[in-house]
């Protein structure tokens, strides 16, 4: 996220630059400088200190109170990563003086600087409190520039705490105000921050959408440093999408600009990004070279947030070079800093790297500890309100773009129509012709309203699809909670008792067959859940090919052989070797496996299950016949309904998820077939389905 004066944060804005001009004028009047002023950070700090000292010595504080407070705030900002304790003292002095003379903007600026101080130390509650107080003062003084900067920093603070939903709300409020105020610089900053949120969620396409806006705005602003900051962030995205040539081009341009302008904090960040590029290319020694260059600059800065990714990247490079000691040292530094300042993304990346290191050293207890931390943070950052906010924003953006294009086209049409009306009035001046053109204009407006209504319906449809996706998620979680948690809990309890010595090894070995059976059932259930979840969320695709049916049937019989053998059930493959189908092999395998699993479940011991197929002109009719307990008529209607998850217990009290037949029906439909059942109670069941006929493969002669 971009805040003031920070890598991944905004540079000082216009009002600060203007006040610096005042500072330089004051310096000229006080010291009669004859040479050109230097623009490095050290010189700016020195100039600000000299100005403050001179005003104090000349006793002009009372006369130039607002200028003096402005100088204090500017100096505090410049010392943010040089001497943060001085930042706090200067900001508090500025706040006190501002309060005495009721200078609300000065007090708001001071409170914002104090908020930045606590933000850098991970004290998010205090930081948010100061930003809110500063925002109240800025609004009461109607200082739009200050309102924009505070709102941006406040939104960034919500990002650090993982509350992307609230951050988005604040950014969009600030973006609307920036556009109304015509502040292209802060508008670019906010769009870049919105892009960064999508980067965190690995939605690089949407991130690039915002960066395109940023680049257009940067051209208008014309600030090379701001453009270089954007290029360095774009290089980071190109790295994650493996566009390494683009990444190197952008990062080398930004490094050159930062070197020329002596922007040390962003130069350190750019060196780190370049190290990341080589790390992703597995050029680990070269990656360490650039990471070390970044580290040299960081040693001169007090920027804990900026060092988190640096140390984590160094740890990953050392780990790849099999230097586990160095990897552990830097990974622990990254994790400790992230924990200290409560950086959610930093804790996530640091715990993931520590997990890899301890796993590599066979310290599974430590590895598991950090893996649990990584999983917990990941779940927190990926919570529903964050994902929903991001998805809804994308939908609204798409709708807004379409709506703007439509309105622009219709405005052009209306303008053209008005031109015709004016010409007609001048030439003919007949009221009938005027009425005709008015009617046409109304028709155009009606078409516009109709098209806008259509766009609204598209947006409503998107909302319904999002709700359907949430319902699918809830159903998956429900099944996981009821059908997977129990066996996993039992397995965990047995392992815990074995580990703690409450159970002897001989007793544990007696549980092994049951545990193996539970694991097999969990594996089968998880495969069904994943297949069904993908089909519901439209992730899976159907890719048909010529498949030899008898081989496919036999593979699935072999897969479930252990389960059928336990019930002494004979499974026959009566499918001829010359029958071929044209379908998605993976989906057909899921169908056959589920039908066989159901048949085994409801067939008593010593029973028989038969696979067969009948050839027709354009399709193959496949059947699975069992000698099971049969299905009552009313149950037959329920199990084949859309989205049904009806389930019962098998002959040996086997329990299912209820997804099998629903999944089978959907996958058969995807492959152009249909599914039906014939069954009689106590006599068994036959499940039929059709699938397109394939071409028989000819064997090549020797």
- Quote the average pLDDT: 79
Please give the order of strands in the largest beta sheet: 2-4-5-7-6
Please tell me how large the radius of gyration is: 34 Å
Count of discrete alpha- or pi-helical segments spanning 4 or more residues: 26
The number of strands is 7
Helix content: over 70%
Largest sheet entry: 5 strands, mixed
Low-confidence stretches: 5-40
**Tell me, what's the shape?**
extended
In whole angstroms, the N-to-C terminal distance is: 67 Å
* Class from secondary-structure proportions: alpha+beta
SS strand fraction: 5-15%
Describe this structure in words.
By secondary structure, this protein is of the alpha+beta class. Helices cover about 70% and strands about 5% of the residues. It has 26 helices and 7 strands. The strands form 2 sheets. Strands 2-4-5-7-6 form a 5-stranded mixed sheet. It has a two-stranded antiparallel sheet with strand order 1-3. It is extended. About 5% of the residues have low confidence.
Short description:
The chain is an alpha+beta fold. The protein has 26 helices and 7 strands.
List keywords for this structure.
702 residues; alpha+beta; 5-stranded mixed sheet; two-stranded antiparallel ribbon; 26 helices; 7 strands; 72% helix; 6% strand; extended
Q: Would you spell out the secondary-structure blueprint of this structure?
A:
Elements: H1 14-31, H2 41-57, H3 65-78, H4 84-100, H5 104-120, H6 124-140, H7 144-160, H8 164-181, H9 184-200, H10 204-221, H11 224-240, H12 244-261, H13 264-280, H14 284-298, H15 304-320, H16 324-340, H17 344-360, H18 364-381, H19 384-427, H20 431-500, H21 505-536, E1 545-548, H22 549-559, H23 561-566, E2 570-573, E3 580-583, H24 585-602, E4 608-615, E5 619-626, H25 633-639, H26 660-670, E6 675-680, E7 684-692
Parallel strand pairs: 2-4
Antiparallel strand pairs: 1-3, 4-5, 5-7, 6-7
Helix pairs in contact: 1-2, 1-3, 2-3, 3-4, 3-5, 4-5, 5-6, 5-7, 6-7, 7-8, 7-9, 8-9, 8-19, 9-10, 10-11, 11-12, 11-13, 12-13, 13-14, 13-15, 14-15, 15-16, 15-17, 16-17, 17-18, 19-20, 20-21, 21-26, 22-24, 24-26
């Amino acid at each position: 996220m971009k805040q003031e004066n920070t890598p991944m944060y905004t540079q000082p804005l216009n009002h600060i630059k203007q006040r610096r001009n005042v500072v330089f004028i004051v310096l000229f009047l006080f010291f009669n400088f004859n040479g050109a002023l230097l623009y490095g950070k050290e010189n700016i700090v020195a100039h600000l200190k000299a100005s403050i000292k001179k005003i104090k010595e000349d006793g002009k504080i009372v006369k130039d109170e607002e200028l003096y407070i402005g100088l204090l705030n500017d100096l505090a900002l410049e010392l943010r990563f040089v001497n943060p304790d001085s930042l706090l003292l200067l900001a508090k002095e500025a706040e006190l003086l501002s309060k005495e003379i009721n200078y609300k903007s000065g007090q708001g600026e001071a409170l914002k600087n104090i908020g930045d101080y606590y933000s850098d130390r991970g004290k998010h509650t205090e930081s948010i409190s100061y930003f809110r107080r500063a925002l109240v003062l800025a609004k009461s003084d109607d200082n739009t520039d200050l309102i924009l900067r505070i709102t941006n920093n406040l939104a960034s603070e919500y990002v650090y705490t993982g509350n992307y939903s609230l951050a988005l709300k604040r950014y969009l409020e600030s973006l609307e105000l920036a556009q109304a105020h015509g502040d292209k610089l802060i508008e670019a900053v906010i769009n870049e921050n919105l892009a960064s949120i999508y980067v965190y969620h690995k939605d690089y396409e949407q991130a690039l959408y915002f960066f395109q806006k940023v680049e257009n705005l940067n051209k208008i602003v014309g600030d090379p440093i701001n453009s270089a900051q954007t290029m360095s962030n774009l290089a980071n995205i190109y790295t994650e999408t493996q566009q390494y040539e683009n990444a190197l081009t952008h990062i080398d341009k930004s490094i050159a600009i930062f070197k020329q302008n002596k922007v040390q904090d962003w130069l350190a960040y750019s060196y780190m990004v370049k190290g990341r590029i080589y790390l992703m290319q597995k050029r680990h020694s070269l990656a360490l070279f650039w990471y070390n260059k970044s580290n040299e600059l960081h040693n001169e800065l007090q920027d804990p947030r900026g060092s988190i990714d640096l140390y984590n990247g160094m740890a990953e490079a050392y780990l790849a070079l099999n230097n586990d000691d160095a990897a552990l040292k830097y990974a622990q530094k990254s994790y400790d800093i992230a924990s200290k300042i409560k950086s959610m993304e930093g804790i996530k990346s640091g715990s993931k790297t520590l997990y890899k290191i301890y796993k590599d050293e066979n310290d599974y207890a430590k590895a598991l500890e950090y893996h649990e931390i990584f999983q917990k943070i990941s779940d927190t950052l990926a919570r529903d309100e964050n994902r929903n906010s991001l998805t809804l924003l994308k939908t609204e953006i798409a709708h807004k773009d379409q709506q703007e294009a439509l309105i622009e086209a219709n405005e052009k049409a209306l303008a053209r129509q008005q031109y015709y009306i004016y010409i007609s009035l001048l030439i003919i001046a007949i009221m009938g012709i005027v009425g005709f053109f008015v009617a046409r204009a109304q028709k155009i407006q009606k078409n516009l309203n109709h098209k806008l209504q259509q766009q609204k319906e598209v947006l409503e449809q998107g909302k319904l699809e999002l709700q359907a996706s949430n319902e699918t998620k809830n159903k998956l979680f429900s099944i996981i909670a009821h059908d997977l948690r129990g066996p996993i809990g039992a397995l965990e309890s047995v392992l815990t008792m074995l580990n703690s010595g409450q159970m002897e090894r001989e007793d544990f070995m007696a549980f092994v067959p049951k545990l193996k059976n539970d694991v097999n059932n969990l594996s089968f259930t998880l495969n069904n859940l994943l297949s069904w979840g993908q089909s519901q969320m439209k992730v899976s695709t159907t890719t048909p090919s010529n498949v030899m049916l008898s081989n496919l049937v036999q593979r699935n019989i072999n897969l479930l052989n252990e389960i059928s053998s336990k019930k002494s059930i004979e499974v026959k493959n009566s499918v001829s070797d010359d029958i071929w189908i044209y379908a998605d092999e993976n989906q057909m395998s899921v169908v056959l496996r589920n039908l066989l699993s159901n048949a085994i479940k409801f067939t008593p011991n010593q029973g028989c299950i038969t696979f067969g197929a009948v050839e027709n002109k354009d399709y193959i009719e496949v059947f699975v016949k069992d000698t099971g307990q049969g299905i009552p008529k009313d149950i037959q209607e329920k199990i084949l309904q859309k989205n049904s998850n009806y389930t019962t217990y098998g002959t040996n009290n086997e329990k299912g998820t209820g997804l099998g037949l629903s999944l089978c029906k959907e996958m058969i439909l995807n492959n152009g077939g249909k599914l039906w059942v014939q069954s009689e109670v106590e006599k068994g069941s036959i499940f039929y389905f059709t699938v397109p006929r394939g071409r028989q493969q000819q064997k090549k002669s020797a």
